[in-house]
Design brief:
This protein is α/β, with parallel strands linked by helices. The protein has 19 helices and 27 strands. The strands form four sheets. Strands 14, 18, 19, 20, 21, 23, 24, 25, 26 and 27 form a ten-stranded mixed sheet that branches. Strands 10, 11, 12, 13, 15, 16, 17 and 22 form an eight-stranded mixed sheet that branches. Helix 1 runs antiparallel to helix 2 (about 30-60), helix 1 packs parallel to helix 3 (about 75-105) and helix 4 (about 120-130) packs across helix 5. The longest helix has about 35 residues, at about 75-105. The chain starts with 7 loop residues before the first helix and ends with a helix. Mean pLDDT is about 95; it is low at about 230-235.
Length: about 675
């Protein structure tokens, strides 16, 4: 921390600690707590691949450059990360031990190889030989095989071998198709052993004729911060081909982390030297390197028991007026539609697109795509629309990290159907969430525009909280048409009528509204700012919030993840309150509100208040024009600000603490489910 600023990476690690806290929260059902532990670990994996990877690059290319808020070099940030992560590994191990004990009481015991009885050991040995060993690959490092390239996020077992007085290194790679869990024996209570434990116990069978002196299981994390810029030499080539090549590079980039199950093993130093990795980024994990199996551990319990250890079933609702509507197109043309995922179902949006694909009035459909579901109804609707003669344009972002391959696949499918495909915009990621539908009724042109805070993804709509508005407002419709035109010609300099669009107008527009609230406060009136986002890192916006606080503007921020602003600092941020909500659903909506309840200006947006969003991406903030919808969103945000169960408050010392429960307990997400 430095003054009122918090380092971005440190703040993210604090967020992930709040995820781990949910794994230890006894008010959450047991199987859900296991999922939170798994999410904590997968979050950390991605953090190393992306953020540590980026800092690693910076430490090599710009060693003297500093973070603009805390003035730390990349090297100093990496050192700080190492210390915090080390404690995180200890905390997650302690959490797993607790969960194992509770799972055993519930009826599923996860055992280590050394806990097996002789009969169980023989059963496991036979299973390993017949079902696991055929799916392993082995190598002995000798004169003919002097080197090995460990793939990103893959488990390897290393052996120090001896034969005829010669010492060699043996490597066993476990294929990902191997079942992660093996149930030993029968009975009402399940006894489970993980594939890694089977390898530890019987992997040496893959090296007959050798004496095993030492062994160590390991996993390497590699830099995934791909350079996706396109230079002049790439212009003549298909960008999709270039991206395929860059994706393949990801498995071969520099190592940024080594995980081992035995930090005392002499094999550790061999691997660190091979990877050219500092020992500060070697972490010991004796249990397992990922906990994804906890998502499916419930299958070993009786259904009634497993159900009792999960959140109660929940399905997003469909408003009666939408369900009863003969035509969703006509509904959208007559009044604005509002959906709040996951509390509302995504079905009306999917059905609207299906109807647009068939309706003769619809002339054109244009959409931005960032992340899609594995089996996307959105893509199916777009293909059908194209086949029926509609003009369909799809802006698909090939640089959506870790979804590049999926997006390449869907781009090919859409192109084969006849859709016009645009691969984002040069030098900017297109992260906007917008659908533009152009209709012709007689001689009149009408518009339906969908604007949202989340991806067009049926899967995440059930897990992420997002806001959606469908409107027939003419000026917003014209803005939407202009937006897609500007994407096609790579133009960011455009004066939209109602939409705020990054990188040109979104940040200046929001800051102008902040200035209005500052002027109110200076004039002795009530100035108010409310904002909800995933992350806050943009220094210019942070400094404007500080200015507003000093002027007396009351500021409430709901920031799920990274927050680089310290609230409550006397004389600087004392009028700013920051809370974070981590619960059953991933908070993902962005709302920016200026003024009081009755006269506020409100926007929903695809953009967080991060420099990468405001300056380096194409993002949209859309005004909420319908007064009824505005009231609904405002009420939802007030409920979240009153959360005293899942909310934690960021304090002036940089720590997150539970919100004081003065009255009745309120879990905002749970209350939205009930309503």
């Amino acid at each position: 921390m430095r003054g009122i600023y918090v380092n971005r990476e440190y703040s993210w690690l604090l967020f992930n600690k709040r995820v781990l806290d949910q794994a230890n929260d006894l008010s959450n059902p047991l199987l859900e707590r296991g999922k939170f532990l798994s999410i904590f670990c997968s979050n950390l994996d991605e953090f190393f691949m992306v953020r540590v990877g980026s800092l690693y690059n910076d430490s090599l290319t710009a060693p003297n450059a500093v973070d603009n808020k805390t003035q730390l070099t990349a090297a100093k940030q990496l050192a700080g990360i190492s210390a915090v992560v080390e404690k995180g590994y200890r905390d997650r191990a302690a959490t797993y031990i607790k969960l194992k004990k509770e799972l055993a009481k519930a009826g599923v015991r996860i055992v280590k190889a050394e806990e097996l009885t002789p009969r169980q050991s023989e059963e496991c040995r036979e299973y390993f030989i017949s079902r696991v060993l055929p799916l392993t690959s082995v190598m002995v490092l000798d004169a003919k095989h002097p080197m090995v390239s460990f793939e990103n996020m893959k488990n390897y077992m290393l052996y120090e071998l001896e034969r005829n007085g010669r010492r060699m290194i043996g490597i066993l790679f476990l294929n990902s198709s191997v079942e992660r869990m093996f149930r030993i024996g029968g009975g009402k209570k399940a006894k489970i052993i993980l594939a890694e434990e089977l390898v530890k116990a019987f992997g040496s069978l893959a090296f007959p004729g050798y004496d095993v002196k030492n062994r160590m299981m390991m996993r390497v994390t590699r830099n995934a911060d791909l350079d996706t810029r396109v230079d002049d030499s790439d212009v003549e080539h298909d960008f999709s081909v270039i991206m395929k090549e860059k994706i393949e590079m990801r498995a071969k980039l520099s190592a940024v982390r080594l995980e081992v199950d035995d930090e005392r093993s002499p094999l550790k130093d061999f691997v660190l030297k091979l990877l050219k990795l500092d020992s500060a980024f070697c972490f010991a994990e004796e249990h397992c390197f990922d906990y994804k199996f906890l998502f499916s551990i419930g299958k070993y319990l009786p259904p009634e028991t497993a159900n009792a250890l999960k959140y109660p079933p929940f399905k997003g609702a469909i408003a009666p007026d939408l369900e009863e509507a003969d035509s969703l197109i006509d509904y959208a043309l007559s009044k604005d539609m509002f959906l709040s995922y996951p509390y509302d179902s995504m079905s009306p949006v999917l059905e609207l697109l299906d109807e647009c694909a068939k309706d003769k009035r619809v002339q054109a459909i244009k959409i931005t795509i960032y992340r899609l579901a594995n089996h996307s109804r959105i893509v199916d609707a777009l293909c059908k629309a194209c086949e029926r003669g509609k003009q369909v344009t799809v802006v698909i972002e090939l640089m959506a990290r870790f979804d590049e391959e999926s997006n390449l696949h869907y781009a090919s499918k859409l192109q084969d159907a006849g859709c016009t495909i645009i691969y984002g915009m040069e030098n900017y990621k297109v992260h906007s969430k917008i659908v533009s539908v152009v209709l012709k009724e007689g001689e009149e042109i009408r518009y339906i525009t969908h604007l949202g805070t989340g991806n067009y993804n049926e899967s995440t709509s059930k897990q992420y909280t997002d806001l959606n508005i469908v409107t027939s407002d003419e000026e917003i419709g014209e803005d939407a048409v202009a937006f897609f035109h500007n994407i096609a010609i790579c133009n960011t300099d455009f004066a939209y009528k109602k939409l705020l669009v990054a990188p040109e107008t979104l940040k200046p527009g929001l800051m102008r509204y902040m200035d209005c609230e500052i002027e109110k406060a200076k004039a002795g009136k009530e100035g108010r700012i409310f904002a909800k986002m995933n992350s806050l890192t943009d220094k210019a916006i942070i400094d404007k919030l500080v200015e507003a606080s000093c002027a007396g503007v009351k500021i409430d921020l709901i920031v799920r993840g990274i927050c680089c602003l310290l609230p409550g600092v006397p004389g600087q941020t004392e009028n700013i309150r920051v809370i974070s909500i981590v619960g059953r659903f991933l908070e993902h909506s962005r709302v920016y509100c200026f003024g009081g309840e009755e006269d506020c200006v409100m926007y929903i947006s695809s953009a967080d208040l991060m420099t990468r969003n405001t300056d380096k991406r194409v993002e949209i903030a859309a005004p909420v024009l319908d007064k009824g919808i505005k009231r609904k969103i405002y009420a939802m945000m007030q409920t979240m600000l009153a959360d005293n169960v899942k909310a934690k408050r960021l304090c002036a010392d940089g720590k997150y603490r539970r919100v004081e429960t003065l009255g009745q307990a309120l879990d905002a997400q749970a209350s939205f489910i009930k309503n």
